[in-house]
TrEMBL record:
Protein's recorded name: TECT1 protein
Source organism: Phainopepla nitens
Protein family: Belongs to the tectonic family.
Gene Ontology CC: MKS complex
Quaternary assembly: Part of the tectonic-like complex (also named B9 complex).
GO biological process: cilium assembly; protein localization to ciliary transition zone
Boundaries of every Tectonic-1-3 N-terminal domain copy: 10-122
Domain of life: Eukaryota
Domain Tectonic-1-3 stretches: 158-315, 325-512
InterPro entries: TCTN1-3, TCTN1-3_dom, TCTN1-3_N
UniProtKB keywords: Cilium biogenesis/degradation, Glycoprotein, Signal
Length: 540
């Protein structure tokens, strides 16, 4: 109808309000709560900082370049002023392309939503929805209301971005850390999704411990975190009390606040450590905050104490998986491992073992293999490891149960099938998981005093081959092959009354198979010249 056509054309002619506030965008703002040099859009910079700038590293800031019409923030410096000043203005920018976006009214595309991982329960449902040649990706309703595209300021502050300081009622969530020296500074803000762990020294006085704010639990939980229309209170998750000799006891109840006080020339209930745990949604909204405390006693002779602080972030309804690098492995962190789930229509994901780690037998002081069953040590990337135990064999032992017990000691109760090629490999990324090749080698040993033979495993050798992946400037460690070799030996039944001790060993070897980089130029001829001993003076 003509009326509907005219109404549609009127909506097209009216330019929608911008969804993104370009005045708040800044691509050069890298330091948290600090001014970045020559970053004219950094909100942490003051007029004194702008007077020292020589240029604006990003002179124009825009939102989506595919929009037909949008606002642009223009930054420049007035070097003729004394002192130099920053000039900021907002202009209208028009996209000359005929293929441009008029209105960003598809709300589901305005933020990243985690895709639904196929499981045996929802596979048929996902197949019906996305299995055809085409499928409908439109939302249930299209909203062309320009007012709905501009959410209120309260909703804008509720969704945090990576690295943005977590705001509270008075300022921001404190995570004390050493700045110049080892002394604690309370001016360090906790950045969203930035896991941190710090330790610093705090000056104390037992006579005044009840008046030192940094020793009280209230100092770390009395400010609520700013969320959407409500505020998130920081709850006390647990309280651990540490004695003067270092022994720790977990209190059964954490409902009662324990404030520092002086008792018998001791300062008790002083905060020695705080561990924050923040829960957020997939859109960056904080919904829960908890703090675990370690309280201790301070003697009268102590002039300072060491405090430890830690913060971690977990997405709602998501199982946290510890990473061992991003993306490549970091030397000293555990090698991640897992299993391919059974009954999947296709290998879409991998389920991790108990600790998501590749483990080997852990050496114990008794060195008894039968007593060491279940004791495992994680395989740390880049560390060659050797462990073992001793097995005492008597004539009363049966062959098959003994062989299965030793196999469980060497491989553990559930030996993984795959190893993550990168330190941050996700379960749904099938190509990021390397299968473990298992080999079996048998050694023949014959004894004249033994009567009947028995095959038992005596060693497990794991070889991890890795290579440097990516840029030569910042190469990333990537695992490309893992081989687990079980070596068995042939024993014969001992006569009655006799026994034998056999060593059982486990080992891990990391092999770098990276090929050397080939130069892009023709190699220069070698010149055999002996330089003077002080040729590079004063450099070594």
């Amino acid at each position: 109808p003509a009326d509907a056509r005219d109404a549609a054309q009127a909506r097209v002619r009216s330019a929608p309000a911008p969804v993104t506030d370009v005045a708040r965008l800044c691509g050069c703002d890298l330091l948290v709560a600090q001014c970045d040099p020559n970053c004219c859009c950094d909100p942490d910079c003051s007029s004194q900082d702008f007077s020292l700038f020589t240029t604006c590293s990003i002179p124009v800031v825009t939102g989506d370049s595919q929009l037909c019409s949008q606002k642009a923030a223009v930054y420049s410096l007035d070097i003729e002023a004394n002192p130099p000043e920053r000039i900021f203005k907002i202009i209208d920018q028009v996209n000359p392309s005929i293929f441009c976006i008029h209105a960003t009214n598809y709300k589901q595309a305005l933020y990243l939503k985690s895709p639904e991982i196929p499981t045996p329960e929802n596979f048929d449902q996902l197949l019906d929805k996305f299995g055809g040649a085409t499928f409908n990706a439109e939302p249930d309703s299209w909203d062309l209301d320009t007012d709905a595209q501009n959410p209120p300021d309260a909703n804008e502050t509720s969704r945090y971005e990576y690295g943005v300081p977590v705001q509270t009622e008075d300022a921001f969530l404190r995570l004390p850390s050493p700045v110049v020296s080892s002394w604690c500074s309370d001016a360090n803000p906790a950045g969203f999704l930035v896991n941190q762990a710090t330790k610093c020294i705090r000056s104390v006085s037992v006579e005044k411990c009840d008046s030192i704010q940094a020793l009280s639990m209230l100092f770390y939980i009395n400010s609520s975190i700013l969320a959407s229309v409500f505020q998130v209170n920081i709850t006390v998750q647990s309280i651990v009390v540490q004695s003067l000799n270092g022994m720790r006891t977990l209190l059964s109840s954490s409902d009662v606040l324990r404030l520092p006080m002086v008792l018998a020339e001791l300062c008790i209930n002083a905060v020695l450590g705080v561990n924050y745990h923040i829960t957020h949604t997939d859109t960056g909204e904080i919904i829960e905050a908890a703090a675990a405390f370690v309280l201790g006693a301070i003697s009268k002779e102590a002039l300072s104490i060491e405090q430890s602080f830690e913060i971690s972030f977990t997405q709602e309804n998501a199982q946290p998986v510890p990473l061992s690098g991003n993306p490549g492995y970091v030397v000293g962190l555990p090698v991640r491992a897992g299993f391919q789930p059974q009954g999947y229509p296709f290998p879409a994901a991998f389920l991790s073992n108990k600790h998501s780690q590749l483990t080997i037998l852990q050496s114990t002081s008794p060195q008894d293999c039968l007593a060491a069953q279940g004791a495992r040590a994680p395989v740390l990337f880049g560390y060659n490891m050797v462990s073992g135990c001793k097995l005492r064999i008597t004539a009363a032992m049966k062959c098959q149960p003994l062989a299965q017990t030793l196999l469980d000691v060497l491989k553990g109760q559930s030996f993984p099938e795959y190893v993550a090629s990168f330190g941050n490999s996700q379960g749904q990324d099938v190509l990021d998981w390397v299968p473990i090749t298992q080999l079996h080698i048998s050694e023949q040993r014959i004894s004249h005093t033994l009567q009947s033979s028995c095959q038992i495993p005596v060693s497990l050798g794991i070889e991890v081959k890795w290579t440097k992946y990516g840029s030569l400037v910042n190469p990333q460690a990537r695992i490309v092959n893992v081989t687990a070799t079980i070596t068995s030996t042939t024993l014969k039944q001992l006569p009655s009354g006799r026994e034998r001790i056999i060593p059982i060993t486990s080992s891990v070897v990391f092999t770098d198979i990276s090929s050397p980089a080939e130069p892009s130029y023709k190699a220069w001829p070698t010149i055999n010249i002996k330089l003077p001993f002080d040729f590079f003076y004063p450099f070594v």
